[in-house]
Amino acid sequence: MVVLLLLILIAVPLAELFVIIQVAHLIGLIATLLALLLISIAGAWLLKREGAAAWRRVTDALARGEMPATEVADGALVFLAGALLLTPGFITDAAGMLLLIPVVRVGLRGGIRKLLWRWGRRRLRVVGPTEAVAHRVYDARAVSRKPSATASAGQLPSTDSGPADEADFPDRR
Q1: Using N-to-C axis directions, what is the helix angle for 90-99 and 2-27, rounded to 10°?
Q2: Cβ-based neighbours of 50, under 8 Å, separated by 6 or more
Q3: Tens digit of pLDDT for each residue in 121-150?
Q4: Do 14 and 2 meet the contact criterion of CB atoms below 8 Å apart?
Q5: Angle ∠(93,96,100) on CA atoms, nearest 5
Q6: d(Cα 103, Cα 12) in Å, to the nearest integer?
Q7: By three-state DSSP, how is residue 52 classified?
Q8: Fewer Cβ close by (within 10 Å): the C or N end of the chain?
Q9: Which helix (H) or strand (E) element contains residue 151?
Q10: CB distance 87 to 44 below 8 Å
Q11: What is the DSSP letter of 15?
């Protein structure tokens, strides 16, 4: 993993520099710098739009009482797109712009989900029947008690009534 990270940290800037030099030879230095600037401005605008839409989808899912897993993954990919757009160069700008396209994010989400699933299955040890650990299971049910006659409207009911008796659990065997 460290080798891969070092390779990325060395290879990506070198590739960016190579592409910038090649583009500068083709269209000139001023045009290359203007292109990088315009791409960054367009990327910032798209990032703002897509980031706000991703945030809105997260809050909508939370308001519906759903787990916003897909929406959070979208937000993370939009955040990655912003980081790529902040990095100067044509390669990272192209990758960042691609991540801002919703259809591309849908495809990447599925691929990332599969990769994480495989990674988790390799790294997590599954306990088999021979390795089972004995656990105690406690019956933890909520018992509603009527407030005592001495409790006023603003006070909590007294807990001095003692443990619940068997009548409180009619379905217990």
Answers
A1: 110
A2: 78, 81, 100, 102
A3: 777 755 555 554 555 555 556 666 665 555
A4: no
A5: 135
A6: 25
A7: helix
A8: C
A9: none
A10: no
A11: H
3-state secondary structure of 10: helix
What the block records as the tokens of 86 is 């902040």
Q: Report whether pLDDT(51) > 70.
A: yes
- Among 74, 92, 91, smallest CA distance to 83 is for 92
Supply 48's token pair: 């703002």
Residue-wise DSSP of 61-130: HHHTT---HHHHHHHHHHHHHHHHHHS-SHHHHHHHHHHTSHHHHHHHHHHHHHHHHHHHHHHSPPP-GG
* Amino acid at the residue 155: Q
Q: How many angstroms separate the most distant Cα atoms in the chain?
A: 90
Q: What's the pTM?
A: 0.60
C-beta separation of 123 from 113 below 8 A: no
Token output for 141: 């049910």
